[in-house]
Structure prediction request, 94 residues.
Amino acid sequence: MPTYAVRYTYDERTDVRDHFRPEHRSYLSALAEHGTLLGSGPFTDGAPGALLVFRAASPEVVGAILADDPFVREGLVAESDVRAWDVVLGPWSA
Prediction:
């Protein structure tokens, strides 16, 4: 199944993001338990945002998954970029 790297860029509403973070992380945790989300986490420098890595059938499936993310639903993701990723080495390459 294809792998997709997603880059989120958050808007500046840190207080709103803090409010919805538990729901956002719960949603992502369920995806990780299902095996759809391989990893995710916020960037620690530069513009506020995060990297998420999914295994899904198509970019449309990833788009539907992202649409249900509480951060996206609440308009906290100012920009996202979904890219197919050919994982050649490492634990996600198997």
In short: DSSP finds three helices and four strands in the chain. The CA atoms of residues 47 and 60 lie 26 Å apart. Residues 14-34 form the longest helix (21 residues). The chain has a mean pLDDT of 96.
